[in-house]
Amino acid sequence: MSQWSQVQQLEIKFLEQVDQFYDDNFPMEIRHLLAQWIESQDWEAASNNEAMATILLQNLLIQVDEQLDRVSQEKNLLLIHNLKRIRKLLQGKYHGNPMHIAVIISNCLREERRILAAASMPVQGPLEKSLQNSVVSERQRNVEHKVSAIKNSAQMTDQDVKYLEDLQEEFDFRYKTIQSLEQSDKNSALIKQEMLALQAMLNTLDYKRKEVLSKIGRVIHEIDMLMSNMLTEELLDWKRRQQIACIGGPLHGGLDQLQNCFTLLAESLFQVRRQLEKLDELLTRLTYDGDPIPVQRPQLLEKVNFLLYNLFRNSFVVERQPCMPTHPQRPMVLKTLIQFTVKLRLLIKLPELNYQIRVKATIDNNRRFVLCGTHVKAMNMDESANGSLSVEFRHLQPKEMKSSAGSKGNEGPHMVTEELHSISFETQVCLYGLTINLETSSLPVVMISNVSQLPNAWASIIWYNLSTNDPQNLSFFNNPPAATLSQLLEVLSWQFSSYVGRGLNSEQLNMLAEKLMGQQVSYSDYQLSWAKFCKEHLPGKSFTFWVWLEAILDLIKKHILPLWIDGYVMGFVSKEKERILLKDKTPGTFLLRFSESNLGGITFTWVDQLENGDVTFHSVEPYNKGRLSALPFADILRDYKVIMADNVPENPLKYLYPDIPKDKAFGKHYSCQPNEVSKPSDGGGKGYVPSVFIPVSKILNDSTEPHSPSDLLPMSPSVYAVLREHLSPTVIETAVRCKLFHS
């Protein structure tokens, strides 16, 4: 079943979440019509490869054209109209930046997987629940409403200033007219009456000046209150959501809404600034005793400038955290001399700033690393599909200084992967007489010199962003805090949903909890230490919990991904639980689980019944990535044979737990037809018999001990004779044999 088909079967509350991230950037109509094709492309790789993204965009447009031809034959007028509009939109929006649509589609697919994983869990995780708090949504609506109200107030004040300007011009004209009269004329009764009218007009001017200053003061106060409270909280919430998204959590939307709020507030503040400048012009033409402008204007202007400084400083954000294109799902882990990308945005989108702001990238000041590559670029509105004012660095490389390289050998592997660094960015905005210096930094990054350090480095990134919302605590691992087990398990499920397309259910998470704690525990309040997660070896093992889990992720990604996505790999189940599940099932029922003793290993266990009615279980020696590289796992399950005594070799695997016929579960993943005995003329080159690999096991009694060289053979001569009747010698000699233990 395709991922999109699974999405369509979700409950309405989850479908509403899906609806939120499909818009004109990537219309849902295209997702629906091209579901199979979209899911078969590697959008994640294309998001960091411009050539690949260009080809995918061209192929996407071809696919849309084919759909247009189809619906044209069906004479579906509405769909024809929508597809023509969408094709024009896609081509216009992404022609100059094809990687952007690759990022969008990759994020949408990932978010679908996360929602599917969340739907399979009995309850929503604590982290995700906090991110979808209804109070937060209400605050977002309030912020947008208040910003709109402030913008309207500033525009209304513009009209008041214009009225004040017109009133003062009339006053100036009438006053100058009286001044131009002869002295004798000034004593006439008519002129005296005019002077009284001028005094009344001056009183009105004074009142209107005070009124305008009061309105300007209220607008400034409303902006100040909004920035100090709700807008600051919104920005902090977005940054926290970004942290969580970086470690596999829900996508962090809302930046465009924040940009709209920041931009409207900046426009309002500049509008107020112009109003104050206009009042200064009016002041130079007319002032009087008790004039409010010279008293109030300087204070108001100082407050406006102060708010503009703060607004600009808060608007300079890292939109996409540092990430190596080779490891898009492991952001903030950077390898020396390998390029990484990072994107920044100024949330104040003003046309006057396009190509006027140059951003410089540097690394933290410990002088151990420097950045190579293009580290100064101008922000512009042309590279982003949504027209935001942003800049993306694509060719930065961290380089370790030679002076510190000599000390690297004295550091342990944990010291390397627990050392946090920061990528800093600085720029200067010059606008309307203001000069504002801006600075921002990435979330802490971990530097590695060898890809073997990547798993532990990623563990550090997970632990940091799970445990703190402090964006710059570079000494965090001097005393890392414990994490709540329930939150950690939620994040671990995210690793599977984001990296291999399917999250973990409650039973799988229970097994991980028991493995971490060594016993059954309650998720809700248990605290787990950093050392237990990533530094201490599991009991009786030579590796840590995290290394074991990371090896499983790698195994799934490279060798059994389709089976995992289909939900046919139970995976995380203990041997004890395995037997409880299988004992009452039909003989030949089996399940797939990950090895607890071998890194990156997967095994299968089936239930059998002896002649006396007793139930017995068999577990094959785990398959690792080396063996799975030679033979696909689905083919292993199909062709697996077992030999007991002098019996004919047979496949004992009949039903995938609980009762799914094996071929029904795995048939679509078989790479070829079942192996058959070949004759020399059946296609073998130059008279050779085509060889195939088949997995074969011989069940040995526990009491069997080898005593002679012949006993060490994979099978006895008599057993070999039986096998020879059914398979060619070449097939037998090239078979992959697995020792299987009888229990």
Overview of the structural elements:
The protein is of the alpha+beta class. The chain folds into four domains: 118 residues, Transcription Factor, Stat-4, CATH 1.10.532; 180 residues, Up-down Bundle (Glutathione S-transferase Yfyf (Class Pi), Chain A, domain 2), CATH 1.20.1050.20; 112 residues, STAT transcription factor, DNA-binding domain (Immunoglobulin-like); 164 residues, SHC Adaptor Protein (2-Layer Sandwich), CATH 3.30.505.10. The chain contains 27 helices and 22 strands. Strands 14, 15, 16, 17, 18, 19, 20, 21 and 22 form a nine-stranded mixed sheet that branches. A four-stranded antiparallel sheet has the order 1-3-7-5. The chain has a four-stranded antiparallel sheet with strand order 6-4-9-10. The chain is elongated. Belongs to the transcription factor STAT family. Its main location: cytoplasm.
The helix count comes to 27
> In total, how many domains does the architecture comprise?
4
Question: How many beta strands in the DSSP annotation?
Answer: 22
Task: Say what the CATH topology of the largest domain is.
Answer: Glutathione S-transferase Yfyf (Class Pi), Chain A, domain 2
On the 0 to 100 scale, the average pLDDT is 83
Task: Name the beta content range.
Answer: 5-15%
Subcellular location: Cytoplasm; Nucleus
Protein name: Signal transducer and activator of transcription
GO molecular function: DNA binding; DNA-binding transcription factor activity, RNA polymerase II-specific
Family: Belongs to the transcription factor STAT family.
